[in-house]
Design brief:
- The structure is a single chain.
- The chain has 369 residues and is mainly beta.
- The chain has 3 helices and 16 strands.
- It has helices at 2-19, 147-154, 259-263; strands at residues 31-45, 66-80, 85-92, 105-113, 119-125, 161-170, 177-184, 199-207, 212-223, 226-240, 245-257, 276-289, 297-308, 318-328, 335-346, 358-368.
- Strands 1-2-3-4-5-6-7-8-9-10-11-12-13-14-15-16 form a 16-stranded antiparallel barrel.
- A hairpin with a 6-residue loop joins β6 and β7 (177-184).
- The longest helix is centred in the N-terminal third of the chain and has 18 residues, at 2-19.
- The chain is globular and about 65 Å long.
- The two termini are 32 Å apart.
- The relative contact order is 0.13.
Length: 369
């Protein structure tokens, strides 16, 4: 009942304020922009002993092999307070379909921009530590972010983190450079820090040409007294062949300390440096644009990924293959339908876990507004 009462109280605040004659001033220069995104999925497992979550079942229990779900239901508020300051709040109501603890709230930050060279950001947001931090999930060329993104996000290098950053870009040189450096709690989103340790991620992106960009990421820090680090390298290529055809290619490699796995041990006897993760993926994409039709773009993408969360010990490497067809019925993926086949192959199958060969068909419908 308490969350419901809190929500009711928040909704009634404007009425209480008017009743008491309270005037809450807002500068006339402030501009508010609301936007949203909805992603709905249908998942179908092609394996009789694998459920829709990729969990293997060796018994005779009844499991779900197909299901509809709401993957994301996001609402964002962007407030432009002045020509230099803006604030952003992003929530994902799709998290309520599972365990919403430490979720739902994604972005919550204030950005102060002086010029192209000097920008400060404070609050909860995604650190710049890889190619996938550069765009929201509704612009991902595959069905979702990579497995690598979520593993390094769980170790606080990517996804939504609480902290501060300094960033900028130098454009008027032979090789344009974008740079970013930050300091974060290292405890993931919506979580109060539990120690004095912080992580310091940094990133440089070099514009080798109009079509090609090279990114270098690196970071170090401490988590509960343990020294941790990570680094990565990514290459992005995008070229328009003519007015109808586009080709795109993204690849990324990362390696680092898997402190999450270290702290999952009841009594770790092996140093944290022995818990190491690494992964690589490649994602080619070809798109064809239509004119004067309801169908705007048709794309084909194929992502291959190799990921090992514990390669220095008894790692169980995971290889993922995702061929995908995507159709866009409005500009900038405002209406998008995706059909993909996700095939996971492990170095060794572990019964009754998600570390098991799986084959799933995923249909995803997206609307941005």
């Amino acid at each position: 009942m308490k969350p419901n009462l809190t929500l009711l109280f928040l909704l009634c605040i404007p009425f209480f304020s008017n009743a008491q004659g309270i005037d809450i001033p807002v500068t006339s220069k402030t501009k508010l922009n609301f936007s949203g995104m909805l992603q709905s999925q249908f998942n179908y497992s092609l394996d009789d002993d694998i459920d829709i979550k990729g969990l293997h079942h060796s018994g005779d229990e009844q499991v779900a092999h197909n299901s509809f779900s709401v993957k994301r239901a996001r609402l964002q508020l962007n407030a432009t307070i002045s020509d230099r300051i803006n604030a952003v709040i992003l929530v994902n109501f799709g998290d309520f379909t599972g365990n919403p603890q430490n979720k739902v709230l994604e972005n919550a930050f204030i950005k102060y921009s002086i010029n192209d060279y000097v920008n400060f950001q404070f609050g909860q947001f995604r650190p710049q530590f890889g190619q996938e931090d550069n765009y929201p999930v509704d612009f991902v060329q595959s069905i979702d972010y990579s497995n690598q993104y979520y593993l390094f996000g769980g170790n606080s290098w990517q996804s939504f983190q609480i902290g501060a950053s300094f960033s900028g870009k130098i454009k008027d040189i032979a090789v344009p450079i974008e740079y970013s450096i930050g300091v974060f709690n290292g405890n993931n989103r919506n979580t109060v820090d539990n120690d004095d340790g912080k992580i310091f991620p940094a990133r440089l992106v070099f514009g080798l040409s109009k079509e090609t960009h090279l990114g270098i990421s690196g970071g170090a820090g401490k988590n509960m007294g343990q020294k941790i680090w990570a680094y990565g390298l990514d290459l992005d290529y995008k070229k328009q062949l003519n007015e109808k055809w586009w080709v795109k290619f993204t690849s990324e490699y990362k390696q680092g300390i898997n402190s999450q796995e270290f702290f999952n041990q009841t009594t770790p006897v092996i140093p944290v440096s022995r818990y190491a993760m690494r992964g690589i993926y490649v994602l080619p994409n070809v798109s064809y644009s239509f004119k004067n039709t309801r169908l705007k773009d048709l794309e084909f993408a194929f992502r291959y990924e190799y990921l090992d969360a514990d390669f220095k010990q008894s790692g169980n490497a995971r290889q993922t293959y995702i061929p995908m067809l995507s159709a866009s019925f409005a500009e900038a993926y405002a209406i998008r339908v995706q059909l993909g086949l996700m095939m996971d192959r492990y170095q060794r199958n572990i019964p009754n876990t998600t570390s098991y060969h799986t084959n799933r068909v995923i249909c995803q419908v997206q609307a941005r507004f």
